[in-house]
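Q: Start with the shorter request: fold the first protein.
A: Done. Sequence, then structure:
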Amino acid sequence: MQKIYFSLLFLLLSLGAIQAGNPDRQGEAGAYELLMDPWARTAGLHSMSTSLVRGVESMNLNVAGLVRINKLDFGFGSTQYLQGTGINLSSAAVSAKIGKSSVMGLSLMAVDFGDIEVTTANQPEGTGGTYSPSFFNLGFAYAHEFENKVSVGLLLRVVSESLANVSAFGFGIDAGVQYVTGEQDNFKFGISLRNVGSPMTYRGEALSIQRPSPNGGSYDVTVDQRGARFELPSLLNIGASYDFRFLEKHRFTVLGNFTSNSFSRDNLGAGAEYAFDERFVLRGGYKTDLGSNDPIQAQIYTGLSAGGSVTFPLSKVEKNTKISVDYAYRASKVWSGTHNISVRIGI
């Protein structure tokens, strides 16, 4: 069995090496909504909880953590992305145990751009009409746990982007591994490979143009332009964390995470989380780009994130039946940062 574990780790590392960070390719990918974090628990740690994420949030970071639930897990999230841009994210997810060691999950995330004014070359101030892009992705996940120490997961994600007269469609695959050890499962290690899949191309009536007849006739012909292909923003996450437990009900966790991006600079960061009785939790983190001091090329976020969670029992009989309310904030160098609020119900 250990050979299987190490084979999975080697596969993820090999694929990650192929997709190593390359700032020269920055801007060549598309579907960047796949990198937006719609969940407050992971956003509070700046999406660096690769080693310890669990439940429905794991389908957006490391799908191997999906297996660490009781029976059922539900999640709902709302995000004000870079407040001031008018962009909002909505997310919903569910996961369920299948047998003793397997879990299946379903996740949905949609991006709301609001109403955008229609402008043309002849009417640059606007035509009076509006339009709203439709961006969403749907994920189907499966995770399995071996001997309560190692869990692996795989997720297939369908990606759709469309306007009224043009659209693009694609799919991506996520894979992840988590390893837990220690007397109280103190040490955790995780690797996840995300957004490896098919290139996407825009197609539709918007790419059709009228041109004069090549034979000099008095009529026009319709010509279909080819949309440029673009890749998904694939990346590799490697993270580790350690739990310090004291006075029975207190936990203090430190973590570190490295992200290798295929189409931008790599990231390195660290964070911490404090929990009292696993009911009241505070968390924060800092993440930075590697290899550049150019403020123009720096990421939109300043690197700071913070958040918290409050968990309430829903039943005096079933102790594992709980509801959690989570909040996170990530500071940005322009606009007013990103706010995440999510609710999670475990049964």
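Q: Next, the second protein, separately.
A: Sequence, then structure:
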Amino acid sequence: MNAPASALYVGRVDHNRVRPRAHALAYRVFWMLLDLDELDGLGRALRVFSCDRANIFSFRTADYGDRSGNALRPQVEARLSEAGIVTEGGPIRLLTMPRILGYGFNPISVFFCYRPDGTLAASLYEVHNTFGEIHSYVAAADGAARPIVQDSDKAFHVSPFLTLGLDYRFRLLPPDDKVALHIAVSDDDGPVLFASLAGDRRPLTDRNLLKLLLTHPLLTLKVTAAIHWHALLLLAKRVKLIRHPGPPAADVTVGRQSV
């Protein structure tokens, strides 16, 4: 029997704003890498993790995609198909923070979409904002490239201190012994913000999950609290507050791989 592809990644998130005021934040984080075809088995194999039911750690299907609670694989494959990307039924793995004691919030989660031969075909970045909205950015990926570099227009209001009309550049190191994502946000005058996440792989076991419960207590609640705290700090620095422009016309933005 093959070893499960699902795993834990433990690391940190960094944000560095360079304009119009310098501002930085960093915090320790862990993520679960969940192979969508392994979800039911993980729920049976682990005592402290469940899929679509309450537990210390849990995964709720309705937190992702169209939030209908329907299976995620068909939803992701449909979005890839609309972007002209075919994966031929290869694995789809999601990097995300789980719900902890029932509470969850993910500023960004990443679906890694593979071909049957194991090469990466595409990535789908699912972004949530604190207004309860969700938007996805999808881009083809050359699985042999390291790092994978993708560009996209910013189409979704996330931070009330960033306008639309910006550009994203994603630099992605797909999950192996490590996982990393660096996002540069720029306008015509150059970089505005850099954000990154990076983590080291650990086996997905009850023991490791309980250790993380002690070393990263109430992680998802702390992430939400940190977002609001740093918003207050930006206001104190007199960074202009941007009015919410309303949701984008489409719920998916198609990006492109850079060469």
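Q: Describe the second briefly.
A: The longest helix spans residues 219-236. The helical segments are 39-45, 72-82, 206-215, 219-236.
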